[in-house]
Structure formats: structure tokens, C-alpha cells
# Entry
Amino acid sequence: MSVRRYTAPSLLVTLLIAGGLACRKPVAARPEQPQAVAAPDQPGPADQVLPPTDAEQKRTSEDALEAARNAAAMREAQYHKAADAALRDIHFNFDQSAIVASDKPVLVAIAGFMKRYPQAHVTIDGNCDDRGTVEYNLALGERRAAVTLDYLVGLGVAGSRLDTLSYGKEKPVCTESVESCWLRNRRAHFTLK
# Structure
């Protein structure tokens, strides 16, 4: 058998190569990175969201303005419907300016309306039947309007939101000379300003 003889430099090179291979760790294969796929509901680079055009912005602005107008019209209609329901006449006894007990709930409803709608401003018209002089009925109408205003202020309505006016016997709702007609004319009438 023949023995091979190595020289020191060649032996050293062989040992280094063998040692390097023995110490070297195997490199694990890198896992493949999955390709990013855009979800159908998320825009990808090709589906970028573009800013709205001037026409689209104008249409959106007009739609918002129209919706605001519709909402304001609805609030206004509700306001007038509530006013029509609440602002009912109250009536007085002959030659009197005292609030009748049966009309107090009407005044409570009017005060509720006024509190619910702070923009409401009401004129209270004092009216009388056709008996008596013009001057006397104007004064009586003014007393009726003033007493009504005071009652509403007592219920919490600001006096600055109420005005009074006397028509005396100049604005009758009924023209017959019978008690039922005179009663209808002896009233405080409420007008929304």
C-alpha cells in the first residue's frame, strides 16, 4: 500500500478547506414571499381614488343645500302647525276683563307653545261685542289684552315676546245681536308675528 505524503503547506490547505466545510452551517432556503394581492374592496395602485371633479363637488353642494332647505321648510311647517293648534281665542264675560277659569288651559297651551318655540312673537288682540261706545270698547279691549299678557308672563313667557292691541268692537267674528254671538266677539285673539 502506498502512503501518500503531504507537505506542510498542502496539508494546511486541505485542513482549512475541510474545516471550513465542516463548520459551515447549511443555509436554509428562504421561504417565498407571497405577492401582495389587493382585496376587492380596497383600491390597488390601478384603482386609486381620485378627488371629486368640480361638477361632482357642485352637485354634492347643491344636494346638501337642498336637504337643508327641505329640513328648514319642514321645521317651519311644524312651527306653524303648532301655532295653529295652540293659539286659540279665549273669551270674557260681559263687561269684564278677568280670565275665565275654562280658558286657563288654553293659556297654558299657548305658554307651552311659546316656550317650545323661542322665536315665536305673538300679538294679543283685545276685542269686544258691539254694545257700548267705541271709546269704552277700545279701553275694555286693551284691558283684556293686558290681563291676558300678564297671565302668560305669570306662566313663564317673556313679556318682550308679547304685544297687545285693542280693536274694541271693530273686528267682530259674528254680527248677530244675540248672546251667543256677543260671547264670540268678547275675546282675546292671538296673532303670530
About this structure: The longest helix spans residues 54-86.
